[in-house]
Amino acid sequence: MMQELDPHAQELLAQYRSFLPVFTRMADVIPERLKGFFADAGIIVAAVEHRVKTEGSLAGKLMLKGGKYKDIFDITDLVGIRVITFYIDDVDKVASVLERLFEIDWANSIDKRKAHEIDSFGYLSLHYICRIPESAYSDPEHQELNKIRFEVQMRTVLQHAWANMNHDTGYKSGVEIPKVYLRNLSRLAGMLELVDDEFSRIRREHTDYRRNVQKLVASGNLEEVLLDGDSFKSYLNIGPFDRLSKRIASINQAEIQPVDLNNFLPLFKAMGFKTLGDIASLVKDYSDAAYQIACFQMGVTDLDIVSSSVAPQNLCTAYILRNGGGRAGLKLMLDTLNGPSDSNEFMADYLLEQSKDLPFMNK
């Protein structure tokens, strides 16, 4: 290959060899800095890939169009970065990070998402040609690092997968493919593009739903909020069991140990609760009963630390006993919270026995 290159192309190739340590350093630094900025911005990406163009690949490029490059700094894809996102919307978020972190060569950057060819799905990436400003990063041992431009491609997981599959079929490889196969590939590309759009739409709707739930919870309109993972998490943020927990802790002047209460969601669902309003009613109607259970449990102990789970568990205990759930209902509660165990049967018997003479059971 070297013998086929003209003197100018050979000079460019010699420059490439001399700057190879700089290219390698860039391929190490850029992805790590991008990952840090994505984390700070709350952007979750599927992958950040990088590569340095090989000498053979560069030689092939110089054979075709080496005359258009004055020196090695005119070649913009010697270092390539690819950022793969889960959602279409995140491509623009990634681009905004790049715009803050790097100098963008807008004249040579291209948004291939604006293409309208029927077979263009796998190539709808956003391509930025970038340069690292000294204010962002510099390396005294590799000062050329701030002069060399590099390419960043941004696309979704589905676009990336399609591009790889399409490449493996031999498309654009110079091998003629029967039209029926090309037609089927185009149909599949259209389906994948719809799926990509649908994933983003679902995420937007889910985000809107979460925001609406948070507003309803904050406003106190709990009867309108269906009980699910998102709504229960928002409900826990307002501390619905805190008042009862403090009341129970005051029995022994105990310290409250906070624990995750999300494991009560399947229990509340098993008990037939449909909305957050149902849980709010539980707190309102059964707090005294839950407190009576705690007094009986703690009154003869010197326990000085109680878990924040004692409040919702005692509420559920009181509800089950008052509504005829008995031993079976208590065991279901314990199995749901702690996992099935033979010891739950003994604990259910114990709770049933210690609660039978409490005032709330005789109303």
Structure write-up:
The protein is of the alpha/beta class. The chain has two domains: 2-172, Beta Polymerase, domain 2 (2-Layer Sandwich); 239-362, no CATH class. The chain is built from twelve helices and eight strands. The protein has helices at residues 7-41, 55-65, 88-101, 157-168, 179-219, 229-236, 242-249, 265-270, 276-298, 310-322, 326-338, 343-355; strands at residues 45-52, 79-85, 103-104, 110-111, 126-131, 150-156, 255-257, 305-307. The strands form two sheets. Strands 1, 2, 3, 4, 5 and 6 form a six-stranded mixed beta sheet that branches. Helix 5 packs parallel to helix 6 (229-236) and helix 11 (326-338) packs across helix 12 (343-355). The mean pLDDT is 88.
Helix content: 40-55%
Whole-angstrom Rg: 32 Å
CATH topology heading of the largest domain: Beta Polymerase, domain 2
Number of helices: 12
Q: Give the end-to-end Cα distance, rounded to a whole number of Å.
A: 96 Å
What is the overall pLDDT average?
88
Within CATH, the superfamily of the largest domain carries the name Beta Polymerase, domain 2
Poorly predicted segments: none
Q: How large is the share of residues in beta strands?
A: 5-15%
- Tally of extended strands? 8
